[in-house]
Specification:
With 487 residues, chain A is mainly alpha-helical. Helix content of chain A is 75%, strand content 1%.
């Protein structure tokens, strides 16, 4: 095969833009902006980074489609949509960072965000196991650094260390699984693996390898029982980092693993439409989904910390998204993508509100939100949109996400089979979830502010970011065809 | 296709925007809220005039703009905008009358501390009403319809601190909701049968011939056509909204709202929405006319209900003492006339009367508002009197409205539109009962309006409030004058000699007749008007009421009948004793079910969830964390707290990960028992 480097460059132009942007941020900070104050350096770095993200977005939009570089990359609808989604969520994260506490090395922070985004973009398009692993590692390593960036706070270092240890273990599983897959099928390219698997069927060794992959997947998207890092990281990491981990990382993770599992291993899928499963990876996904739904929703009930509550709610949403993964074989990835991207918007927004509140004091417990409607009506209104969307209240996007995913899951085999039961479980647990979401809103919208509470001043960029995220949620909720029609 | 139709959405969007501004404006932002509302209405009026101009270029065309709202299953839910002379005229009428009433409200609500909120609600109402008018989809129409109901609820209960207003708002909301339920069922049925709710859609809309043909030929049990059933269900919505018998009871109570609200919503626009709806779907309602075997036709029912309402409303109005309630029952009665016209097949006459009625009834209500404003919120006609000389402008314009309503011949618009209805009723070949009801109503209308005019404006003031009354400011009287001009001039758009309105609405040339065509009927109705006026004058004008406590002359003549009519034919009591009691019983049953059966189950589930959650937290924090904490504390002694906790926790975490892997691998391999 004669490598087509020109085609590769064209396909990777967006990633190139991000890397060039990151290097430019670092270089400019070292040379031109060196004498400025930290806050000013952060502002300039964010502008450069936003420019890079926008350039990347334009390149994704105008870039080539179809397989690239001999099938190493696959730029189909899902890849393009995910890459755009990652860029939008990164841009919103940058907007959130503008209002957050200024990190010690602002330019490095922004550059690492761009590196993480590069990794996530590659994850969205990777179709070869080596590239899958490398892109996952690039993204993960950047996120570990981001989680531990606030060196002044022990919690941040603690979160990073825990995330790193857990991630290292998950990567080990993933690599072991990949090597087994290579050993069984003799290839690292997904189309060839698929052809080989359909010839030889569900080999026990292949099953073990797939479960290993699933462990890494569960880690990446914080699904139970691989979720244990999530509450600590959400609590300890700097807020923009937590926003990126909760949104863009999740979206790219789901895209990557949907691509891996469905086109790659659809021959070893098993069956969830009937109570007798049959060997395959789908039943294990179903178990992980059920565990995440139950654990996430029930544990969230008992939380008093706002960030831990968001972490457990993220676990619950991962469970619902896994339903979307299960249904993707039959209904296509559109419901999954819609859910994951709109969930990402709401998550970034919620963390953005937290970070804006932290400027004016503490925002650790749910009770710290008390009287937000008096202290900052804008924040309270945006928070209401985000939380109601997370809870799945129409006409916000969260409702349509849940609706399309559950409808797709019910289409797998009606309410008779385990997939149907799982969908019913998810619907029932949505009502449980409403309880803890409304507790948050009750504090923000009804409770009176504390006696010493002062109005919160929200920086203009952050306000714009939050309003944009809320506007997108409302818009996609009113006109879901905008996203669902992409596929 | 006409591309400009796509911009029709701007007409409802402008007042909606003003409502948004009013909603976020601070309480003291009076100028902002009122300015936004009036500017938006002015904008809507200008756009409506352009739209009407566009529609009149080709009156027979239905210009549509349909778009996909969202996909559902294999189909798509589509909405659309429609422009033809019917809704072009409605748009202009709603925005013009709305604009005048907004301006009037500046003066009337001046002293109210919730001025901002009032204009916010008014704008919301205008947006919803215009949405009903421009909709090309019954779904969009229904959305506007419900929003109109909501705005009406909010505005009737605007002074919610008064128990009567709060109760009236609730009554209006619930009563119209009964009709809306029928409407919704009709829509669902229609969608189920035809797969579309668009009115006009290039041959596939529900008002277009081949769909109508299908609907009319589908026969249900009992020989009923599908279109009959659907038409009657949709008519339920119109009955509720337009205050038709038997759901009219909310309309008189709605007078608890501020008077401009009564003028705008409960006289000129919202209550006419039912008539507009029936005119809009007239092809559907008339689809079953060809079925001779059908046991009932939609239009027959409509005509019957209309005739009963027209007569009943006029009769009850005779024996009321509250200025606004008399006008309210008069509205009920006039809406009955419009339904009657629809029922006998002349939707054009109905719309003609709708337009003229909007002007003269808004005029009468605003005149009443001017009186109430001047007389310190005294609205019992027995306590008023003698307002003719202090309130000359109000008196003059009110008289114009009164003569238009009673149908004083040739000059006033009400005469021509009422003649059109009576003429249509006389040509109806099913029955002449509606015609007789309409003619009887004419006498009663002239009678009660004469009584009203004499009691309020003539004689001497009978209370201190009336004695101190003085003319309202120009911001209130100027809209009155404009409306009075409309109440006269509008009639000349639809006289038999120059049937401009008729030919524009139907899109066909209507031949002009002599002014005196059907002269016998016309002469008869003129005689009847004169009879009513004369009887009213004889009883109330010749011997003016001396004191507030004096007996009503009619009550003296027929005390039991007068009391029966005064109690609104005891219909409220009848409903309270039947439907109300049944509802109370059902509610009590529901409470028992809810509190003991469902409440118990939900409570149990909640306790269970709480229990699982706390066990989870206990395991998470007490078991995993605390266990490892204490172990590591023992091992390492003092040290930095976080590293201590973390090394312990992480080991446990990683162990859990390995265990989970083994379990899942076993599951994948064994495949659930196979």
């Amino acid at each position: 095969m004669n490598p087509d480097y020109a085609g590769l460059f064209l396909a990777l132009k967006p990633e190139t833009a991000l890397v060039v942007g990151a290097v430019a941020v670092l270089g400019l900070d070292l040379s031109v902006f060196r004498r400025h104050a930290a806050a000013e350096r952060l502002r300039l770095a964010l502008w450069v980074a936003s420019l890079a993200v926008l350039t990347a977005g334009v390149n994704v939009w105008l870039g080539p489609r179809g397989p690239a570089f001999g099938g190493v990359l696959m730029l189909d609808h899902l890849a393009v949509a995910t890459r755009l989604g990652v860029l939008v969520l990164t841009l919103l994260t940058l907007g959130v960072a503008r209002g957050a506490a200024v990190p010690h090395q602002p330019a490095e922070y922004v550059a690492v965000v761009l590196f993480a985004a590069t990794g996530l973009m590659l994850m969205a398009a990777a179709q070869q196991l080596l590239l899958v692993f490398l892109s996952l590692e690039l993204a993960s390593l950047s996120l570990y650094v981001l989680a531990g960036f606030d060196r002044a706070r022990p919690e941040s270092a603690e979160a990073a260390l825990k995330y790193f240890l857990f991630g290292g273990m998950a990567s080990a599983f993933l690599l072991f699984g990949f090597s087994l897959i290579y050993g069984v099928t003799g290839s690292i390219e997904l189309p060839r693996i698929a052809a080989q698997v359909s010839l030889q069927g569900a080999d026990p060794l292949l099953m073990v390898a797939l479960v290993m992959v699933l462990v890494a997947f569960g880690f990446k998207v914080a699904a139970a029982p691989f979720h244990l890092w999530a509450p600590d990281v959400y609590q300890g990491a700097p807020t923009p980092s937590a926003a990126l981990i909760a949104s863009a990382s999740k979206l790219a993770g789901f895209t990557l693993f949907t691509r891996l599992l469905w086109p790659g291993f659809h021959a070893a899928v098993g069956n969830v439409a009937a109570p007798t499963f049959g060997p395959g990876w789908l039943p294990t996904v179903a178990v992980v989904s059920a565990a995440s739904l139950l654990l996430g929703n029930l544990a969230a009930l008992a939380q008093s910390s706002l960030r831990r509550l968001l972490a457990y709610s993220a676990i619950a949403h991962a469970g619902a998204l896994l339903l979307g993964v299960m249904a993707a074989g039959r209904s296509g990835p559109a419901p999954l993508f819609y859910y994951a991207s709109t969930y990402g918007l709401a998550a970034v927004g919620a963390f953005g509100v937290i970070s804006a509140m932290e400027r004016g004091g503490r925002c650790e417990y749910i009770t710290d939100l008390a009287g937000l409607h008096r202290r900052s009506p804008l924040l309270a209104g945006c928070l209401a949109v985000f939380i109601l969307s997370l809870a799945g209240i129409p006409p916000l996007a969260g409702f349509f996400g849940k609706f399309t995913v559950f409808a797709a899951a019910l289409r797998l085999g009606g309410v008779a089979g385990p997939a149907g039961w799982l969908a019913i479980l998810a619907i029932a647990l949505s009502t449980v979830a409403l309880y803890y979401y409304l507790i948050v809103l009750k504090q923000a919208l009804i409770a009176a502010p504390a006696a010493d509470a002062r109005p919160i001043r929200v920086p203009r960029t952050t306000a714009l970011t939050l309003v944009a995220a809320a506007g997108l949620i409302v818009w996609f909720g009113l006109d879901p065809a905008q996203l669902l029609g992409l596929f | 296709m006409e591309p400009r139709v796509a911009y029709l959405w701007l007409i409802p969007a402008l007042p909606l925007l003003a409502a948004g501004v009013g909603c976020v404006a601070p309480r003291n932002g009076r100028r902002l809220a009122a300015g936004a509302a009036i500017a938006a209405m002015l904008g809507a009026l200008v756009l409506s005039c352009f739209a009407l101009h566009l529609a009149l270029a080709d009156p027979s065309a239905h210009l549509v703009y349909n778009f996909r709202w969202f996909d559902l299953g294999n189909g798509a839910v589509r909405l659309g905008l429609l422009l033809d002379p019917l809704n072009g005229l409605m748009c202009v009428m709603v925005s013009l009358v709305g604009l005048l009433i907004f301006i009037f409200s500046l003066g009337y609500m001046d002293a109210d501390e919730n001025f901002t909120r009032f204009f916010c609600f008014l704008s919301l109402f205008a947006a919803a009403m215009l949405c009903v008018v421009v909709a090309n989809s019954l779904l969009l129409l229904f959305i506007g319809w419900e929003l109109v109901g909501l705005a009406s609820y909010l505005l009737i209960g605007f002074w919610f601190h008064r128990p009567a207003a709060a109760a009236a708002a609730k009554k209006a909301f619930i009563t119209t909701r009964i009709g809306d339920l029928g409407f919704l069922l009709g829509l669902v049925w229609l969608y189920d049968t035809t797969g579309s709710l668009l009115l006009y859609d290039g041959g596939n809309g529900v008002l277009e011939s081949h769909v109508l043909g299908d609907l009319a030929t589908q026969v249900l049990a009992g020989g009923l056509a599908a279109s009959t059933a659907i038409g009657l269900l949709i008519f339920c919505g119109a009955v509720g909204k337009s205050g038709q018998f038997p759901l009219h009871v909310w309309l008189p109570d709605a007078m608890e709202g501020p008077t401009p609200v009564s003028a705008l919503i409960h006289a000129a626009t919202m209550v006419a929405a039912g008539v507009f709806l029936m005119a809009r779907i007239f092809p559907l309602a008339a689809a079953d006319q060809g079925l001779a075997a059908a046991p009932v036709h939609v239009l027959t029912v409509v005509a019957g209900i209309g005739a009963v309402t027209a007569l009943m409303g006029a009769a009850i109005a005779v024996a009321q003492h509250d200025l606004k309630r008399i006008l309210a029952f008069s509205t009920v009665s006039q809406l009955g006339y419009m339904m009657l016209a629809l029922g006998v097949g002349s939707w054009v006459a109905a719309i003609f009367h709708l337009l003229t009625h909007a002007f003269f009834k808004a005029l009468l209500f605003l005149g009443a508002g001017s009186v109430i404003h001047a007389a310190h919120h005294e609205q019992d006609i027995r306590n008023l009197g003698g307002l003719r000389s202090p309130m000359r402008a109000t008196y003059a314009t009110f008289s114009v409205g009164m003569m238009a309503l009673t149908g004083v011949p040739f000059v006033f618009s009400g005469f021509w539109s009422k003649e059109a209805i009576l003429h249509a009723a006389s040509e109806w070949n099913v029955s002449h009962l509606p015609l007789y009801a309409g003619l009887a109503g004419v006498v009663l209308t002239a009678f009660y309006m004469t009584r009203l005019l004499c009691e309020v404006f003539w004689g001497a003031p009978r209370s201190p409030a009336a004695a101190h009354a003085h003319e309202s400011p120009a911001v209130m009287t100027v809209p009155l004058v404009v409306l009075a001009v409309g109440a006269v001039a509008l009639g000349f758009l639809g006289t038999p000699a120059w049937p401009w309105l008729q030919s524009q609405l139907t899109g066909e040339a209507v031949p002009a007749h002599s002014l005196l065509e059907g002269g016998g009927l016309m002469a008869l109705s003129i005689v009847l008007v004169a009879t009513g006026l004369g009887a009213g004058w004889a009883l109330y004008g010749r011997r003016l009421r001396a004191t507030a406590g004096a007996d009503d002359p009619l009550a003296a003549a027929a005390p039991r009948l007068f009391a029966f009519l005064g109690a609104r034919m005891k219909l409220d009591e009848l409903y309270a004793a039947t439907v109300g009691r049944l509802n109370t019983f059902a509610a009590a049953l529901a409470v028992i079910l809810d509190r003991w059966v469902w409440g118990g189950a939900v409570g149990f589930l909640a306790r269970f969830g709480e229990f699982t959650g706390s066990v989870n937290r206990g395991v998470d924090e007490g078991g995993l964390n605390a266990g490892f904490d204490s172990i590591s504390e023992r091992i390492r002694g003092a040290g930095r707290a976080y590293s201590r906790a973390q090394t312990g926790e992480t080991h446990g975490y990683l162990r859990a990960l390995a265990v989970a892997f083994v379990v899942l691998a076993l599951l994948a391999l064994l495949g659930g028992g196979q």
